[in-house]
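In this section we turn from sequence analysis to structure. A common task in structural bioinformatics is to predict how a protein folds when a small molecule is present, because the ligand can shape the pocket around it. The inputs are simple: the amino acid sequence and a SMILES string for the ligand, here NAP. Study the lines below before reading on.
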Amino acid sequence: MSVLVVGASGAVGGAVVAGLREHGVAVRATSRTPQKLVLPGEVQVFAADLNRPASFGAALDGVDRVFIYADLDEPEALSAAFVEAGVRHVVLLSSSSVTFPGASDDFNGSRFIRVERAIESSGVAHTFLRPGGFASNAARWSWGVRGDSAVPLPYPEAVQVPVHERDIADVAVVALTGDALIGKAPILTGPERLTLRQQVDTIAAVIGRPVEVIEQTEAESSTMLSQYVPDVWVRQIIKDWREAVGATPAVSHDYERITGKPPRTFRTWVEDHAELFR
Ligand SMILES: NC(=O)c1ccc[n+]([C@@H]2O[C@H](COP(=O)([O-])OP(=O)(O)OC[C@H]3O[C@@H](n4cnc5c(N)ncnc54)[C@H](OP(=O)(O)O)[C@@H]3O)[C@@H](O)[C@H]2O)c1
C-alpha cells in the first residue's frame, strides 16, 4: 500500500507523514517547493500543486490513498485526476465550519463545502476531517509575547475549543491505514473550552512570565492583522471572535472514539511549541 501526503511541509501534513512512517506505510510526499522538505530518504518527494492536477503525474503512480488540504480552486478537476489515476480513498483536511448554519453563504464554510461536494460527486471513497479552530492560531501571538509580553485582542472573552494539529494528523493516519473511516466526517476539537484570555494565560504559565492582554477595538485589531493576513481573513477572524463571546462551542469526542486516546490539551500544544514564545 502506498499513501501520498499532499502538503507534507504543513503542520498537519508533516505530522501525517511522521504518523504513517511509524505505521510502516510507504509514504510519498509533495510540496509546491519540494526542496524545502526535510524528510528521511525513504520518503519519495514530488513537486505538485493542488491547483494544477496535471502536476501530480508520476506522484500518483500506484498510490492507493491521498491526504490533501482544501486550499484549491478547481476541486472537480483534481478529484477527476485522482479517480483517473486509480486512487481509491481521499482524506481531506476540511473544517467544522461546513456544519455551521448558513455555511454555504459564508466565505470560510463555502470553500470547504465546494471541495467536499466535488470529492463526493467524483465517486471516490473519502474521509472528511472537520477540525474546529486550531491551537496553532495562537502562534500569531508569538511576536507580541516575545516583544512586549503582551497580546492585543478585541474580544479576549471569545470562547474556543482549540485542537492540536497532531490530533488531526492521528485521525488522518487512522483513515489512511484502514477502511474504518471511509464515508465518515469526524469533527475534531480539543478537550476543553477556553477563552482567548485563558489561552494567553496558559502561554504565560508555560513560559514562566506574565503576559498581558491588551484590549483593542475591532478597527485597531483589523489594522494590526492586515499586516500579516489577507483582508478577507482579517474580517473572518474578527467576526469569529465577536460571535464566540459568551458562546458554548461543542466539544467533540470523535478523537477519543477513533484513537482511544484523550485529545491533547491547549497546554500541551504550547509546551510543544514553547520556543515560539520564549
Ligand atoms: N486555522 C484553523 O483554525 C483551521 C480550522 C479548520 C481548517 N483549517 C484548514 O487547515 C489548513 C491549515 O493546516 P496547517 O496548519 O497544517 O497548514 P500549514 O502548516 O500552513 O500548511 C499548509 C500546507 O498546505 C499546502 N498547500 C497549500 N496550498 C497548496 C496547493 N495549492 N497545492 C499543494 N499544496 C498546498 C502547503 O504546501 P506547500 O506550500 O509546501 O506546497 C502546506 O504544506 C488550511 O487548509 C485551513 O483552511 C484551519
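The pocket of NAP is lined by residues 6-7, 9-13, 31-33, 49-51, 69-72, 93, 95, 131, 133-134, 136-137, 165 (CB under 6 Å). As an exercise, try to locate the residues that line the NAP site and compare them with your own expectations.
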